[in-house]
Every structure is written in C-alpha cells, then in structure tokens.
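Reviewers of the previous submission asked for a worked example of the structure-prediction workflow described in the proposal, so we include one complete record here. The input consisted solely of the amino acid sequence. No template or homolog information was supplied to the procedure at any stage.
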Amino acid sequence: MLKTSHLPSISPPSHPRDRDAYAHQREWQAHIDAGRIGRGPSITPEQLAQIAHNERVLLGR
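From that input alone, the workflow returned the following structure tokens.
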C-alpha cells in the first residue's frame, strides 16, 4: 500500500468566502424548496411561438 502521509491534506483551507458560498447555497435551495425556482418556463405560449418563429427565420428551419 502507498504511503500518503507526505501529501498535503485534500481538505481546502478555511476561508471567510467559503462560509458565504455555503450560505448562498442554502438560501438558493430554500427558494427551490419553496417552489420559486425550477417550475418550468414562465413565458406565455405566445412568447414561445415568437421564439420559434425567430429561430425559423434566423436558422432557416
């Protein structure tokens, strides 16, 4: 078996920004859990039709 005691720890050093990132992730997850994010597109069928039309014009499809 290989000895790894000479290698640096794989745990990242603690930094104040890291705690902010975890807090941000928890807040984002709270929005998802509350149903404010991830419910699908919030655009109307008319808007979807306009997007499809624009793609046909621009891409020749």
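The mean pLDDT is 77. We consider this example representative of the routine output the project will generate in years two and three.
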